[in-house]
Amino acid sequence: MSGLSVEGLVVRFGPVVAVDDVTLRAGAGRATALLGRNGAGKSTTLRVASGVLPPTAGRVTVDGVDVVEDPLGAKRAVGYCPDVGGLVPRATPWEHLELSARLRGLRGWEPRARELLRRFDLDDVADRVTAGFSHGMGRRTSVVLAALHEPRVLLLDEPFDGVDPTGVDATLEVVREARDRGATVVVCTHLRDLAVQVCDEAVVMRGGRVVATTPVPALRGEEGARAYRDLLA
Ligand SMILES: Nc1ncnc2c1ncn2[C@@H]1O[C@H](COP(=O)(O)OP(=O)(O)OP(=O)(O)O)[C@@H](O)[C@H]1O
C-alpha cells in the first residue's frame, strides 16, 4: 500500500510509553499534519516511520515497505528531517548533499541541490561547516537534505521551528511540490496556522495516542483554533 501506514504502534523507553497503540494512515498525494503538545509522541512516531527507531510493537510501512523487515528499503523511500540533530558539525551543506546523493546512488543531482540551496537561501553558506549554523539555518539544511532525492515519503519533524519567513515559504513550497508529484508528506508541527496552510488532513496526538483525525478545514480560522485547543486539553 502506498503512503504511510501505522498499525498498533507501541514504543516504550523503559517505563515510558511514548507511543501507545497508534494507528494512522497518511495517503499518497496528500500532506498530513501530525499535531499535538510536547511529549505527545509525534517525533517518536516519525522516528519509527523513518526507520531510525525500531518499534516495540506494531507494524509500520512506508510506500508499502515494512520498516522492520526492510529498513534499507524504507530509508530509500523516505526523506526525513529529524526534529534535532542529523547534521555532521564538521561537514558543509554541500558535503551533506554529496554524501546523501552517493549513498542513494543519485545521478545528475547537482542542479537540484543548487536550486534547493538557493530557494532556502543557503547558497552563500553551502561550503561552510554546519558547526556554526544558527538553529534556523540547521533546520533549513535538514529540509533540503530530506527533499533532495524527491522521496516517495517525505517526513518533516518541526521543519518551521526557528525558521525565518524565507525558509518557511521555501518549506511550504517543498511540501506542495512533493504532494503534487504524488508523494506522501507528513509534517509534524506545533504551528497550527502553518499546518492548515499546506496540509490536507490532520492527526492530533495526546499522551501517546491519536485523539482525532480530521480534514484540515475543520482546524482553520478562530473556530478551528478553538477546536484544536479543545483537542489538546
Ligand atoms: N529516547 C527516549 N528516552 C526516554 N523517553 C523518551 C525518549 N524519546 C522520547 N521519550 C519520551 O516519549 C514521550 C514522547 O516524546 P516525543 O518526542 O515523541 O513527543 P513529541 O510529541 O514529539 O514532543 P515535542 O513536541 O516536544 O517534540 C515523551 O514523554 C518523551 O519524554
TrEMBL record:
ABC transporter domain span: 4-232
Keywords: ATP-binding, Nucleotide-binding, Transport
Keyword Iron-sulfur carried by entry: no
Superkingdom of source: Bacteria
Keyword DNA repair applies: no
UniProt GO MF annotations: ATP binding; ATP hydrolysis activity
Xref: Pfam families: ABC_tran
Listed InterPro entries: AAA+_ATPase (IPR003593), ABC_transporter-like_ATP-bd (IPR003439), P-loop_NTPase (IPR027417)
Family: Belongs to the ABC transporter superfamily.
Protein name: ABC-2 type transport system ATP-binding protein
